TrEMBL record:
It comes from Streptomyces thioluteus. Residues 112-231 form the Ketoreductase domain. SMART domains: PKS_KR. The keyword Transferase applies. This is Ketoreductase domain-containing protein.
Amino acid sequence: MSRTRVGEVLALVQRFVGEAESDGSRLVVVTRGDMTLEPDPATAGVWVWCGSAQAEYPGRIVIADVGSHDDVALAVASGEPQVGGVRRPAVRAAAVAVTSEASEPQGWDPEGTVLITGAGGALGTLLARHLVTEYGVRHLLLLSRRGRVGSEELADELEALGAAVTFATCDVADRESLSAALAEVPAEHPLTAVLHAAGVLDDGVVTALTPERVRRGSCGRRSTVPGCWTS
Ligand SMILES: NC(=O)c1ccc[n+]([C@@H]2O[C@H](COP(=O)([O-])OP(=O)(O)OC[C@H]3O[C@@H](n4cnc5c(N)ncnc54)[C@H](OP(=O)(O)O)[C@@H]3O)[C@@H](O)[C@H]2O)c1
Protein backbone atom coordinates (compact mmCIF):
# COMPACT_ATOMS: atom_id res chain seq x y z
CA MET A 1 0.00 0.00 0.00
CA SER A 2 1.46 3.37 -0.99
CA ARG A 3 1.50 6.57 1.04
CA THR A 4 -0.92 8.07 -1.50
CA ARG A 5 -3.30 5.26 -0.71
CA VAL A 6 -2.94 6.02 3.02
CA GLY A 7 -4.15 9.57 2.27
CA GLU A 8 -7.03 8.19 0.22
CA VAL A 9 -8.09 5.90 3.08
CA LEU A 10 -7.88 8.84 5.50
CA ALA A 11 -10.14 10.92 3.22
CA LEU A 12 -12.59 8.01 2.97
CA VAL A 13 -12.78 7.57 6.75
CA GLN A 14 -13.20 11.33 7.25
CA ARG A 15 -15.98 11.45 4.67
CA PHE A 16 -17.70 8.48 6.26
CA VAL A 17 -17.66 9.82 9.81
CA GLY A 18 -18.70 13.26 8.56
CA GLU A 19 -21.77 12.08 6.68
CA ALA A 20 -24.95 12.19 8.72
CA GLU A 21 -26.55 9.47 6.59
CA SER A 22 -23.76 7.11 7.51
CA ASP A 23 -25.06 6.98 11.10
CA GLY A 24 -25.86 3.39 11.93
CA SER A 25 -23.88 2.03 9.01
CA ARG A 26 -20.41 0.57 9.22
CA LEU A 27 -17.35 1.26 7.13
CA VAL A 28 -15.17 -1.76 6.44
CA VAL A 29 -11.56 -0.84 5.68
CA VAL A 30 -9.97 -3.73 3.83
CA THR A 31 -6.23 -4.29 3.54
CA ARG A 32 -4.39 -7.10 1.83
CA GLY A 33 -0.97 -6.81 3.43
CA ASP A 34 -1.21 -9.72 5.87
CA MET A 35 -1.01 -7.71 9.06
CA THR A 36 -0.23 -10.79 11.11
CA LEU A 37 3.01 -11.45 9.23
CA GLU A 38 5.09 -8.75 7.59
CA PRO A 39 2.96 -5.70 6.78
CA ASP A 40 4.31 -2.91 4.62
CA PRO A 41 4.71 0.44 6.44
CA ALA A 42 1.65 2.06 4.87
CA THR A 43 -0.63 -0.87 5.72
CA ALA A 44 0.69 -0.84 9.27
CA GLY A 45 0.04 2.91 9.45
CA VAL A 46 -3.55 2.49 8.24
CA TRP A 47 -4.14 -0.17 10.88
CA VAL A 48 -2.75 2.00 13.65
CA TRP A 49 -4.73 5.14 12.96
CA CYS A 50 -7.87 3.21 11.98
CA GLY A 51 -7.59 1.75 15.49
CA SER A 52 -7.71 5.33 16.83
CA ALA A 53 -10.65 6.12 14.54
CA GLN A 54 -12.45 3.08 15.94
CA ALA A 55 -11.94 4.42 19.46
CA GLU A 56 -13.40 7.78 18.38
CA TYR A 57 -16.33 6.20 16.51
CA PRO A 58 -17.11 2.96 18.38
CA GLY A 59 -18.88 0.30 16.36
CA ARG A 60 -18.76 2.22 13.08
CA ILE A 61 -15.51 1.06 11.56
CA VAL A 62 -14.19 -2.44 10.93
CA ILE A 63 -10.70 -3.09 9.65
CA ALA A 64 -10.02 -6.40 8.00
CA ASP A 65 -6.93 -7.83 6.40
CA VAL A 66 -7.99 -10.45 3.88
CA GLY A 67 -6.53 -12.76 1.27
CA SER A 68 -9.24 -11.98 -1.27
CA HIS A 69 -12.38 -9.88 -1.39
CA ASP A 70 -14.44 -13.05 -1.00
CA ASP A 71 -13.17 -13.14 2.57
CA VAL A 72 -14.51 -9.70 3.55
CA ALA A 73 -17.95 -11.06 4.54
CA LEU A 74 -16.23 -13.72 6.64
CA ALA A 75 -14.22 -11.05 8.43
CA VAL A 76 -17.27 -8.87 9.11
CA ALA A 77 -19.29 -11.88 10.30
CA SER A 78 -16.66 -12.54 12.97
CA GLY A 79 -18.01 -9.48 14.81
CA GLU A 80 -14.48 -8.34 15.65
CA PRO A 81 -13.56 -4.68 15.03
CA GLN A 82 -10.06 -5.66 13.83
CA VAL A 83 -9.60 -8.89 11.94
CA GLY A 84 -6.23 -9.94 10.62
CA GLY A 85 -5.06 -12.86 8.54
CA VAL A 86 -8.40 -13.78 7.02
CA ARG A 87 -7.30 -16.59 4.77
CA ARG A 88 -10.03 -19.17 4.46
CA PRO A 89 -10.88 -21.21 6.42
CA ALA A 90 -9.26 -19.49 9.41
CA VAL A 91 -10.16 -16.10 10.87
CA ARG A 92 -7.76 -14.63 13.35
CA ALA A 93 -8.96 -11.75 15.52
CA ALA A 94 -6.36 -9.05 15.91
CA ALA A 95 -6.98 -8.85 19.60
CA VAL A 96 -4.01 -8.94 21.91
CA ALA A 97 -4.16 -11.75 24.45
CA VAL A 98 -3.54 -10.50 27.98
CA THR A 99 -2.17 -13.03 30.42
CA SER A 100 -3.44 -12.92 33.96
CA GLU A 101 -0.20 -14.33 35.30
CA ALA A 102 2.18 -11.71 36.62
CA SER A 103 5.35 -12.13 34.64
CA GLU A 104 8.62 -12.23 36.55
CA PRO A 105 11.30 -9.83 35.35
CA GLN A 106 13.28 -11.59 32.63
CA GLY A 107 16.97 -12.03 33.13
CA TRP A 108 18.55 -9.09 31.33
CA ASP A 109 22.27 -9.64 30.95
CA PRO A 110 23.91 -6.90 33.06
CA GLU A 111 27.01 -7.17 30.85
CA GLY A 112 25.06 -6.62 27.65
CA THR A 113 24.41 -3.25 26.00
CA VAL A 114 20.78 -2.22 25.55
CA LEU A 115 20.09 0.21 22.73
CA ILE A 116 17.16 2.60 23.11
CA THR A 117 16.26 4.64 20.05
CA GLY A 118 14.51 7.93 20.77
CA ALA A 119 16.02 7.77 24.22
CA GLY A 120 15.68 11.50 24.91
CA GLY A 121 11.92 11.43 24.34
CA ALA A 122 9.06 10.81 26.75
CA LEU A 123 8.88 7.04 26.24
CA GLY A 124 12.63 6.53 25.82
CA THR A 125 13.37 8.31 29.09
CA LEU A 126 10.84 6.18 30.97
CA LEU A 127 12.22 3.02 29.38
CA ALA A 128 15.82 3.84 30.21
CA ARG A 129 15.02 4.58 33.84
CA HIS A 130 12.84 1.48 34.16
CA LEU A 131 15.49 -0.83 32.69
CA VAL A 132 18.12 0.44 35.09
CA THR A 133 16.01 0.47 38.25
CA GLU A 134 13.86 -2.62 37.66
CA TYR A 135 15.91 -4.88 35.42
CA GLY A 136 19.47 -4.15 36.46
CA VAL A 137 20.59 -3.05 33.00
CA ARG A 138 24.04 -1.50 33.32
CA HIS A 139 25.09 -0.55 29.79
CA LEU A 140 22.87 1.72 27.76
CA LEU A 141 23.35 3.12 24.29
CA LEU A 142 20.94 6.04 23.92
CA LEU A 143 20.33 7.05 20.33
CA SER A 144 18.62 10.07 18.81
CA ARG A 145 19.34 12.70 16.18
CA ARG A 146 20.36 15.24 18.85
CA GLY A 147 22.34 12.72 20.83
CA ARG A 148 23.33 13.91 24.29
CA VAL A 149 21.90 17.41 23.82
CA GLY A 150 18.98 17.85 26.21
CA SER A 151 19.58 14.50 27.92
CA GLU A 152 22.35 15.45 30.34
CA GLU A 153 20.04 15.23 33.33
CA LEU A 154 18.89 11.75 32.33
CA ALA A 155 22.48 10.62 31.84
CA ASP A 156 23.47 11.97 35.27
CA GLU A 157 20.52 10.20 36.88
CA LEU A 158 21.25 6.86 35.20
CA GLU A 159 24.94 7.07 35.97
CA ALA A 160 24.15 7.83 39.63
CA LEU A 161 22.10 4.62 39.59
CA GLY A 162 25.16 2.68 38.44
CA ALA A 163 24.63 2.51 34.68
CA ALA A 164 27.20 3.36 32.02
CA VAL A 165 25.56 5.58 29.43
CA THR A 166 26.77 6.18 25.89
CA PHE A 167 25.04 8.49 23.43
CA ALA A 168 24.83 8.08 19.67
CA THR A 169 23.87 11.01 17.46
CA CYS A 170 22.10 9.23 14.68
CA ASP A 171 19.02 9.21 12.48
CA VAL A 172 17.70 5.69 12.96
CA ALA A 173 16.28 5.73 9.41
CA ASP A 174 19.78 6.28 8.02
CA ARG A 175 21.25 2.83 7.53
CA GLU A 176 24.88 3.93 7.30
CA SER A 177 24.68 6.17 10.32
CA LEU A 178 22.96 3.42 12.30
CA SER A 179 25.59 0.87 11.28
CA ALA A 180 28.32 3.26 12.43
CA ALA A 181 26.58 3.72 15.80
CA LEU A 182 26.24 -0.05 16.27
CA ALA A 183 29.88 -0.58 15.35
CA GLU A 184 30.82 1.47 18.43
CA VAL A 185 29.25 -1.07 20.81
CA PRO A 186 32.20 -2.60 22.70
CA ALA A 187 32.83 -6.33 22.30
CA GLU A 188 32.95 -6.80 26.07
CA HIS A 189 29.38 -5.44 26.35
CA PRO A 190 27.70 -6.78 23.18
CA LEU A 191 24.31 -5.62 22.02
CA THR A 192 21.69 -7.79 23.73
CA ALA A 193 18.48 -5.81 23.22
CA VAL A 194 17.03 -3.02 21.09
CA LEU A 195 14.05 -0.99 22.26
CA HIS A 196 12.64 1.24 19.55
CA ALA A 197 11.02 4.40 20.91
CA ALA A 198 12.10 6.86 18.21
CA GLY A 199 9.26 8.51 16.42
CA VAL A 200 7.66 11.79 15.52
CA LEU A 201 4.36 12.41 17.20
CA ASP A 202 1.76 14.48 15.35
CA ASP A 203 -1.49 13.14 16.61
CA GLY A 204 -5.02 14.53 16.53
CA VAL A 205 -8.61 13.41 16.19
CA VAL A 206 -9.44 11.73 12.89
CA THR A 207 -11.28 14.71 11.46
CA ALA A 208 -8.27 16.99 12.13
CA LEU A 209 -5.72 14.76 10.38
CA THR A 210 -4.30 15.50 6.94
CA PRO A 211 -2.19 13.23 4.72
CA GLU A 212 0.78 15.45 5.56
CA ARG A 213 0.26 15.04 9.31
CA VAL A 214 -0.11 11.28 8.94
CA ARG A 215 3.12 11.18 6.91
CA ARG A 216 4.96 13.31 9.44
CA GLY A 217 3.64 11.56 12.52
CA SER A 218 3.46 7.90 11.65
CA CYS A 219 4.79 6.89 8.30
CA GLY A 220 7.27 9.61 7.41
CA ARG A 221 10.34 7.67 8.40
CA ARG A 222 10.64 3.99 8.22
CA SER A 223 12.86 2.45 10.82
CA THR A 224 15.72 0.37 9.56
CA VAL A 225 15.23 -1.85 12.60
CA PRO A 226 13.42 -4.86 11.09
CA GLY A 227 9.92 -5.43 12.37
CA CYS A 228 9.84 -2.22 14.41
CA TRP A 229 7.11 0.36 14.08
CA THR A 230 6.86 3.54 16.04
CA SER A 231 3.17 4.27 15.98
N1 LIG B 1 4.15 9.22 24.52
C1 LIG B 1 3.13 8.36 24.42
O1 LIG B 1 2.26 8.25 25.30
C2 LIG B 1 3.05 7.46 23.21
C3 LIG B 1 2.04 6.50 23.16
C4 LIG B 1 1.96 5.64 22.06
C5 LIG B 1 2.86 5.76 21.02
N2 LIG B 1 3.82 6.73 21.08
C6 LIG B 1 4.74 6.79 19.97
O2 LIG B 1 6.06 6.50 20.44
C7 LIG B 1 7.01 7.31 19.75
C8 LIG B 1 7.81 8.12 20.76
O3 LIG B 1 6.89 8.93 21.51
P1 LIG B 1 7.41 10.00 22.55
O4 LIG B 1 6.20 10.53 23.24
O5 LIG B 1 8.50 9.41 23.36
O6 LIG B 1 7.94 11.10 21.55
P2 LIG B 1 9.02 12.25 21.84
O7 LIG B 1 8.99 12.67 23.27
O8 LIG B 1 8.83 13.27 20.78
O9 LIG B 1 10.40 11.51 21.58
C9 LIG B 1 10.77 11.03 20.33
C10 LIG B 1 12.24 10.71 20.37
O10 LIG B 1 12.60 10.10 19.15
C11 LIG B 1 13.76 10.74 18.65
N3 LIG B 1 13.69 10.60 17.20
C12 LIG B 1 12.72 11.03 16.36
N4 LIG B 1 13.01 10.71 15.10
C13 LIG B 1 14.18 10.05 15.14
C14 LIG B 1 15.01 9.47 14.16
N5 LIG B 1 14.67 9.51 12.86
N6 LIG B 1 16.16 8.88 14.54
C15 LIG B 1 16.51 8.84 15.84
N7 LIG B 1 15.78 9.37 16.82
C16 LIG B 1 14.62 9.98 16.47
C17 LIG B 1 13.67 12.17 19.17
O11 LIG B 1 14.94 12.79 19.33
P3 LIG B 1 15.63 13.63 18.15
O12 LIG B 1 14.61 14.61 17.69
O13 LIG B 1 16.82 14.23 18.81
O14 LIG B 1 16.00 12.63 17.10
C18 LIG B 1 13.13 11.92 20.58
O15 LIG B 1 14.17 11.56 21.45
C19 LIG B 1 6.22 8.20 18.78
O16 LIG B 1 6.22 7.59 17.50
C20 LIG B 1 4.82 8.18 19.36
O17 LIG B 1 3.86 8.37 18.35
C21 LIG B 1 3.93 7.56 22.14
